[in-house]
Write a structure and sequence with these properties.
The protein is an alpha/beta fold. It has eight helices and nine strands. It has helices at residues 12-25, 48-59, 81-89, 104-111, 127-140, 160-169, 230-233, 264-282; strands at 37-42, 63-67, 94-99, 116-121, 149-153, 176-180, 195-198, 210-213, 241-243. A five-stranded parallel β-sheet has the order 7-6-5-8-9, covered by helices on one side. The chain has a four-stranded parallel β-sheet with strand order 2-1-3-4, sandwiched between helices. Helix 5 packs across helix 6 (160-169).
Length: 284
């Protein structure tokens, strides 16, 4: 693998190897990337993704060039995206890119001499979040990622984490998807083979192994307000898990955070574990 642009670039063997290594290492520091440099190039706001890549690279002994606000870079002077990528590829060993436009990661890969890692482009994909989401499922539900009743709720039209997760879980056997959203925020990609669309989450809560909650993406023009109540969340089976890629607005009440089914803070911890292993596999 030179670039990671899509979930399609992640083979099952690669994922299982990464997850096994992440389980063993658990984010412990080493010097495997000593002397290597990562550029974090973010054209959109980010807390968890940019910080976890920074933490992962630091824990591997490497260093980071953080460009987390391009308005203070040469972009503000009119520099093209391609020139910025070409420039930073001369200074670093890999580039993590987040961009507001679909296809930006592919554009970056076309001109970069070092690996490009897609940290989210437009409303298209977010493959490294899917590595983390898959690892969370691998740890808390089952290691073969099959026979799952997956309920996805929120802005499915613009949620790139949702699209990437559906793409991954569709590879595995007997997974069923409940797609819950208002009509104007329905999943914009082709539906999975086994799926059910509804606007009412109460129809499917009791038939859920994994509840994946996303926020409404107001920065992409989405308009809708919703929140799940404790009473609704308590309708979930006792062995189910609840995930959220964050940031959380008001979708899940904070009172649910101590429930054993709440796994979203584990997702955040796992983000460093998984991105550390990813960087060690991608950077040569």
């Amino acid at each position: 693998m030179l670039h990671l642009l899509s979930v399609n670039d992640l083979t099952n063997d690669f994922l299982y190897s990464l997850w096994r290594d992440a389980s063993k290492n658990k984010g412990k520091s080493n010097n495997l990337l000593k002397g290597k440099v990562l550029t974090n190039l973010f054209y959109e706001p980010s807390t968890r993704t940019s910080s976890s890549f920074y933490s992962a690279m630091s824990r591997s002994g490497g260093s980071v060039i953080p460009i987390n606000n391009v308005q203070f870079s040469s972009v503000a002077k009119g520099e093209s995206f391609e020139d910025t990528i070409t420039t930073m590829s001369q200074m670093s060993d890999a580039i993590v890119v987040r961009h507001s436009e679909n296809g930006a990661a592919e554009r970056a890969a076309a001109v970069s001499s070092v690996p490009i890692i897609n940290a989210g482009d437009g409303n298209s994909e977010h493959p490294t979040q899917t590595i983390i989401d898959g690892f969370t499922i691998y740890n808390f539900l089952n290691k073969d990622l099959s026979n799952l009743r997956v309920t996805l709720v929120g802005d499915l039209k613009n949620g790139r984490t949702v699209k990437s997760l559906v793409k991954l879980l569709s590879r595995f056997d007997n997974n069923h998807f409940n797609l819950v959203s208002p009509e104007h925020l329905k999943l914009s990609t082709s539906l999975p083979k086994s799926s059910y669309e509804t606007t009412d989450i109460n129809e499917v809560l009791k038939d859920t192994d994994l509840l994946y909650v996303t926020r409404v993406q107001k920065e992409r023009g989405s308009v809708h307000d919703y929140s799940l109540s404790l009473n609704q969340l308590n309708e979930l089976p006792k062995k189910s898990i609840v995930m959220h890629p964050f940031p959380r607005v008001n979708e899940i009440p904070v009172e649910f955070d101590k429930d054993k089914r709440a796994k979203y803070f584990e997702q955040i911890r796992f983000s460093v574990w998984c991105r550390q292993m990813l960087l060690q596999k991608v950077i040569k």
